[in-house]
Amino acid sequence: MLNSKIKTLEELSVSIKKLKEEGKKIVLSHGAFDLVHHGHFNYLKESKKLGDILITSLVADEFLRKGLKKPIFNENIRADSLASLECVDYVVFCRDFGPWDIIKTIKPNVYTKGEESSHQLKNPMSGINKDREAIQSVGGEFRFTKSIPVQITDIFNAYSNALPTEVLSFFEHFKEKYNIADIILKIEQLSGMKVLVIGETIIDEYRFMSPLLGKANKSSAIAARYLGKEEHAGGAVALANHVAGICNNVTLLTYLGKSKPREGFIRKSLHSNVQPIFCYSLNQPTIVKRRFVDESNYAKFFEEQEFSKEFLPPSEEKRIKKYLEKNLGQYDLVITIDYGHGFFSKELIAVIVSNAKFLALNAQTNSGNVGFNYITKYPRADYICLDELEARLASHDEISDMEQILKDSLYAKLKPKKMIITLGKAGSLAYEKGVGFAKTPVIPISNIVDPIGAGDAFLGISAPCAAADFPLDLVAFIGGVAGSVAVGILGNKTSVKREDLFRVMGFLLG
Fold first, then answer.
1. Which residues contact 125 (CB under 8 A, 6 or more apart)?
2. What pTM was computed for the model?
3. What is the pLDDT of residues 97-121, one digit of tens each?
4. What is the pLDDT of residues 121-156, one digit of tens each?
5. Domain extents in the chain
6. Is pLDDT of 431 > 70?
7. Confidence at residue 154, expressed as pLDDT on a 0 to 100 scale
8. How far is residue 65's CA from residue 56's CA, in Å, rounded to a whole number?
9. Shortest CA distance to 325 belongs to which of 284, 356, 282?
10. Is the model's pLDDT at 70 over the cut of 80?
């Protein structure tokens, strides 16, 4: 438990003693918090208003059962989620059927429950009566907080009513095959995987504009007022951060422009468990993609790109090749993200393809490389993830059925273990020899803020799953969840974390 808010009962009692000596009023809340929703948030915020310090007693796994089922999220995930809330000062595990020992040890001034449980007081043998007796025995006050009535089944049913029949059918069948707790356990086991991400760093700049000025005087150009800007570290940096959300040991090999490297900004943008290795292209800046957007809805007016298509200087390429030849074998997974801006020469590709233990690959089609950056320039990969346009361009086929393009054209030529084509609003199509096709619908859990970066999130989260040989349909599902989270984020402002995945999967499958 790395979060400093999460304490053992012994540690907590020492801290609370000092806080009481300072005159602080201590409030204790209690619950399972297995799938946190706005009713929980309200309960905790209302509890905090009753004092200075809020402690949350969290029911440990061995004492939390829903019929014969285990909790959706294990106690460490639930504790970390609670500790991330600003209103919660401390979290302590309750390793009993009630918080009675915790109450007697720390002697809080107030103990709270949501008013929806008040009817349980009518039963003298109920746990809530024991709670009240325990807090009163130490001179504390028992208080109910105002509740927002919430039923998870009601939330899901309301959400489900808005979904197409085929999407509902998919989730019903998927839940029969996979248990949410087992999926979470499998993802947590990826944390020890050693991963190398190779690709170009891109600075994504968003310039927010107001288009209300209309047409410029004596010109056909549209005039807009500049309101501000944001910069995000994108490209391979964003991909590495996504991977770092589920894998603890990530190395990023990337190149910057020597003239304007922005190295300090990039280092600050990387997660603490991502170790960068930088190389430098002499005659260009670090790639910048500058987007001019309507600040009210992020609709894009215009984009300018700052980059050169020169390959790396021979001395830098020699240094990279030497590193890769020596070290590629020690990585469980190598993810190559090729944005088509001059990083991957034929020689560099040959080294990667020949030495990677498990190679995950995407060669992106974008406005800076259309027609010149196909996946087919790589002779092999173990896992390939492309979008529909990239797949059609690489196969030179605009009209054929996507199953035919995937299996008979790209898969037959490149022979990966697994391959997935993302289809935007249509979800994804995956294929594996001996398994066949797996179709996954789009997972519409976020309002679409910005689709940029969703493909990188899909690749970054699904590639470790593919390397660990998860079933094909599970790889596609987990990647789809990551993509659905990413479209709710502007650019690469934040990355997809395991808690995001678990929250969405718990909602869909719990």
1. none
2. 0.71
3. 889 999 999 999 999 998 888 888 8
4. 887 777 888 999 999 999 999 999 987 655 555 555
5. 6-150, 180-509
6. yes
7. 54
8. 19
9. 356
10. no
Q: What is the pLDDT of residue 66?
A: 46
> Phi-psi category of 262—alpha, beta or left, where left has phi over 0 and alpha has psi -120 to 50?
left
Q: Are 211 and 222 in contact (CB under 8 A)?
A: yes
Residue 2 banded pLDDT, cuts 50, 70, 90: very low
Q: How buried is residue 499: exposed, middle or buried, by Cβ count under 10 Å (0-12/13-18/19+)?
A: middle
Q: ∠ CA(112), CA(118), CA(120), 5° rounding?
A: 115
Q: Which residue, 377, 336, 330, is CA-closest to 239?
A: 336
Dmax (CA) of the chain: 83
Residues 6+ apart with CB under 8 A from 118: 144
Query: Which among 335, 355, 369 is positioned nearest to 238, based on CA atoms?
Result: 335
Q: Which fold has domain 180-509?
A: UDP-N-acetylmuramoyl-L-alanine:D-glutamate ligase (3.40.1190)
Reported as a single tens digit per residue, the pLDDT across 405-428 is: 999 999 999 999 999 999 988 999
pLDDT of residue 429: 97
CA distance 494 to 504: 17
- Could you tell me which residues come within 8 angstroms of residue 301 by beta carbon, excluding any fewer than 6 positions away? 209, 211, 222, 224, 292, 293, 294
How deeply is 283 buried, as exposed, middle or buried, from its count of CB atoms within 10 A (0-12, 13-18, 19+)? exposed
CATH architecture of the domain 6-150 equals: 3-Layer(aba) Sandwich (3.40)
Cα–Cα distance, 510 to 490 (Å, whole number)? 28
Q: Which two tokens stand for residue 207?
A: 């310039």
Which of these, 416, 438, 415, lies nearest to 427 by C-alpha position? 438
